[in-house]
Structures are given as structure tokens and as C-alpha cells.
Task: structure prediction
Amino acid sequence: MATATAQPVMVERLPRSRSLRLPPWEKLTPLLLIAPSVILIAVFVYGFIGATMRTSLVRWNSALPDYTFVGLHNYQRLFQLDRFQADLVNTLHFTAIFLAGCIVLGLGAAVLLDQRLRGTLFFQNVYMYPLALSFVVTGTVWRWILNPNSGVNVILGNLHLDFLKSGWLTDTNTALNSLGIAAVWQMSGFCMAMFLAGLRGIPEELREAARVDGANEWQLFWRITFPLLRPITLSAVIILGHISLKIFDLVYVMTFGGPGYATDMPSLYMWIATFQQFLYARGAAIAIVLLLMVAILIVPYLVWNLRGETEQ
Amino acid sequence: MGNERWTRRQFVGRAGKTAGGVVLGLSLADFLAACGTSSPGTAGTGKLEIFSWWTGPGEKDGLAEMFKIYKNKYPNVTITNSAVAGGAGSTAKAVLATRMQGGRPPDSFQVHAGQELIASWVKANKMEAITSIWNSEGWDSKIPKDLKDIVSSNGDVWSVPVNVHRGNALWYNKKVLDSKGVSPPDTPEQLTSALSSLKAKGIANPLALASKGGNWQVQMLLENNILAAGGADFYKNVMSGKASFTDAKVVQALTWMKQWLPYANTDNSSIDWDEADNRLIAGTAVFHIMGDWAKGDFTSKNWVPNTDFGVVPSPGTKGKYMIVCDTFGLPKGAPDRDNAIGWLKVCGSQEGQAAFNPKKGSIPARTDVSPSGFDVIAQSFIAEFKTDTLVPSSAHGSATPPAFASAVNDEMGQFIQNKDVTKTASNLQKASDEFLKTA
Result:
């Protein structure tokens, strides 16, 4: 009851005091200023999501649009496909490697660079540079590096480390992990930058206090530093996670989903289904499944973020 | 003066269109198309936009030759070459699909003969029949009926064949084969034994295999083998959903592939057909089953036909010609329709085909082009084309709709991993049920 009575008072008081001073067209200004972006987002983001949703529920599976409603049939069919089942497993597998690799390497590099030794600025930049590249460039370079007949296998051979040689991208057992290496190489620098910012934000007093209490450096890291990095870690997981769920360019360039379905991803199949097979409804259904997968990751984060803001 | 002002107004209109295109996230090709809109009207003036994926050496030059001929006939037409590179045409097809769905077709576009056009754009009612052009140009007497049938449906002709590639060819390193005392095989069984004796003589992977970019190369192996096991009629039936992929003949075709796979390189998913060609040149492999574009690749790498390399029809397909054919059609709503019709006539002309094909490494679709301007292998193919039974390729879009070909690609990717003949045959039949029955 208390809130119910308190709110109208606020809502009423503000406009009244304003409307007395401002001419009527002034009230329109904020609306006009915000309208273009609202309209553009409404049409080009939510409108297109709606159109995709609609396409996924109809029988449009040729070059000729066919809007006969078929319910969830496209989804049913999709989840029965060997290829799409493989895609889902691959996405989870790839996301796990990618997140683990980026966070472990990123955090490790950040902790080392935080020691404020000489040359840290140089290495900080070196680790960050891959981020400036497009996945297409990374993919092309790593495809050469991991080519079984040239690249890293030759170096291993020259070092007499033949037992480490591998088919890399051409072997179904190693292809996905090889893809992960390239992705981690590109994004771990970004992760490092985030953690470094987080580390520098932790007040030295907290660590001093812990040292005074007799904590060793190992305890200090696990009991003080790491818990305080939790918001950063979560942000990193969200940002990297949605990149990994939607990964397309890297796969397209490095393996095109092969060998077999070993590195196929939903986004690649979405593209193939739509533009090569002309199965527009199936492509749209994959898009919606992808959207839901990313939403599962992002929405709790947004809610958590929003709650944090209102609490402040 | 008045003219100048009009141009400026038109410019503003175009700029608006362009901005719209950018907002919609459309491609560069659309942008070019937007710039190229002009008044439709009399032939011989204005513009002509030709869409293709001919950007590689040879094919690009062939296209330029045809543009030259067109320019001689219609000197006042400005030609826009909207070729899209990448992915053996897959990128171009994606761009084309966007433009066709958006109602902004090019004046004419490259498309594989047959189902790639008929099952998609003809069925979607986006193409204009060219039957009257076909008849007025008298192409019935110049282009084989088998080929006309491939580009026709419901009594109408839909596109003009420019060239014919051969899909069923077995290329071999002649010097290595001679030195090992092995003769080029005629039958699948002979290929198996040739591979095994080459392996015994120290060549670990005598069969070069590529599967990068979607396994279409493996699909060519399959369709050639189905043709070998079942003959032309069975092949056409199975590719139109009238015969089953679980038939003993398809099982036989897959079994041959399974027997050959142990002799093929295992890194096939990382190499494309031209890199497989390099293995032949290097002598690390001896055989490669590939279309006759391989010949252009070999000669461009200074390999001499019938000295360094030789060719026979892929095992068991003598007397049959697997057609891989590029054609041009007329989309409804082509902005410069009259100029596009002029283009189609150049594509189907003796002069156009004589200029294009030697560069492209294919043979003319017309049977009245003099073979004198061609290399020795093309000359023998030209002779065989006239007498062989012609069958459309599924891997290259002529026999089956794109959705089916793509599903078979996936299945071939699985097959080279699991080598499971029964499972693959039954999965192929599932794809047939889904995509061929409705076509």
C-alpha cells in the first residue's frame, strides 16, 4: 500500500511543475530525439526477430515463399537431424574449451602482468594484438599453421618430436580442439585485459590487511583476489560465451564444418540451410534455437546487472 | 543543362536507394545494382549486368572474350561484370538468392543446367522461358537433345548452355604409371587392383582425394560410380526419386568407394581439388577422379597432356558423359531485358562458344564448333560428346535440386569417416524421400 500511494505523487508532481514552465512543443523534444533509435531497433531488431520466428513456423522450404503454417514441424525435424544433433554437442564442447582456455590463460597472464615488472606494458600489448584481427584472418593463418603437411607438424618433425604430430584439423578427434586453439589464441588477450582492469581495481589495503593477518600469497589469491574478480569473471563468461555460441567465420574459414560433422556449428548450418539448400524455414528455426541459447546465457546476466543498478 | 539537372536528381534518388541498401545490410553487389538501374528500353543502348562466379584464371578470360563479342555487336551498351568470388560459386549463389528474393535480379546470371535453376527459380516463378529465342536461333539443330532436355521443363526451355564440362574423368600421372608398369584402369575393379599394386610399389596414397569446402568432390565419386554400376537409365531414375538408393547397384557403388578410400590421403578435408592435382604433379599420388577443369589446372602448371598426364573416363563409365554445364537464363523483371536477350544469343552462338570454351577448358555445348582451337584432350572429348550418352551431374546441380545435393554432401562427409555402406545408403534414401519426391 505504501508504494502504491507514494508513486502517484511523484509521477504527478514532476510533469505538473514542468508543464507550467515549458511550451508544449518542448515536451515533444525528448520523444523526437529518442524516436529514431526506438523505431530503428523496433523494426530492424525486434521486427526481424519476429519475421524469423514466423518463417520458422511455416512450410517455406524452397526458393518460393510458402506461408502455410506448420507449427513446430521444422523444429521437430531439425532436432531429428544427425547434423544438428552433432552441431549442438559441438557447440557445447567448443564453448567449454574456449571459455576454459581464455579464462585460464587470460587470468594467468593478468596476474603475471600485475606484478608491475619491467616490460609488462610491452607484453600487455603483445597479448592484446590478436584481438585486433578478424576471425577470418586468424582462421586463415591457423589453417596454415595446423595443415598436417606443413606448419607445426614440420617443426615437430625437425625437433624429433614426432609423437606430438597430429592430423589437427583433418582428424575427427582433434579438429574441434584445434579450432579451439585458434579461438583461444585470439580472445585470451581480451580476457587478460578484463582481468587486469579487475586486478588493478582491488584496493591494496585489503591484501595488506590479509598479509597482516598471516595469509600467504597463495591464500591471498584464492581468498581475496579471486572472489573480488567474480563480477569480471562473470562478464568474461557472458561475453566469450555468446561469441562462442554464435561462432561462424572461424569455422567457415578453417574447416567448413568438416571432417564429417566434427566441427560443424549451428550458425554454419543455418547459413548452408538457408542459402545453399534454400530451406528457409529450417534456417530460420536454427536461428531461433541459437537466439534462445544465447538468451539463456544473457538474460540472467541482464537481470542481475539491472538489479545491481537499482540497488545502488 | 536540363540534362545535367536531371542527372543530379537521379543521383539523389540513387543515393537514397544506396543508403537504404546499406541500412538493410545488403551486399556490395546490390549496391552496384542500385547504381546500375537505368531505363529499360531499346536494345543496343543502356546497360547490361551479368552475374557469375567466374573470377578464376581461365574462366575470367573466357567471360571477357564473350564480353568482347557482345561489345562488337552492341557498342553502346555498358556491361557490368557482377562476378562474386569464393566457395566454388556458393557465395555467389547466396548473393543471387538475396537479390532474387528482394526482387532485384541481374539481367542474366550463371547457373548450372537443370534442377539448380528449375527446382528453385523456375518453380518460384522468377524466370522467363526462353523457348522462343531457342527456336528463332535454331539451336535445336546445334545443341544435343539430351542437353536441351536437361535445361527444359514442362515443354519450355529455361536457359542457354554455354559450355560442357565432363564430370566423369580419371586423371593420372602418366610417367609414374608407366614407370610402375601399371596401365590406366577401365573398370572399378581394375582401379582397385592398380591402387593396391601402386601401394605395394611404394606409393602410400596413390589416390588423390579432396573434400574441402563441403565434400562435393566425394559426391562426384559417388555419382560416377552409380553411373558405372547401374548405367544411364538407372542413374537418372535414382536421381529423380524413381529408384531407391538402397538398391544393390548403389550399394555396389559405395562399396567400390570404400575399397578405394584406404588408398586415399587422410588429410582430404584440408585440401581442395587443385591441391589434389598438385599431389599428382609431385608424384605422391597417381590417380585423381575429377572434372575436366583439372586439365586447365594441370596445363596452367606447365604439365603437358598425354606426356605428363593422361585421362580416361572414370572407371566403368566409358561411353557416358557426365554433364556439368553452365548456362545463362533470363530472370523476370530483368532491368535491361532486351540487352539480356542479346547476351543470351551471344552465349548460344558459335562465335561465343568458340571464344569462351578454349579459355575455360570446357567444350562447346554446340556440336558445330571447329575443334581446331582446342587442346588434344578437349578434341577427343568433343568427339565423344557427340556419340556418348549424356547424363546430368547431381554434384553440380543439374540432376537434383540444391537441397538434395547438399544433403548428399553431408552424407559423403560422414561416409569417408565411418565407411558404413548400409547406413549411408539408407541415409541417402532418406534424403531422396525428403527432397526428390516433392520436386
Chain A has 14 helices and no strands. The CA atoms of residues 299 and 305 of chain A lie 10 Å apart. Chain A touches chain B through 33 residues (CB under 8 Å).
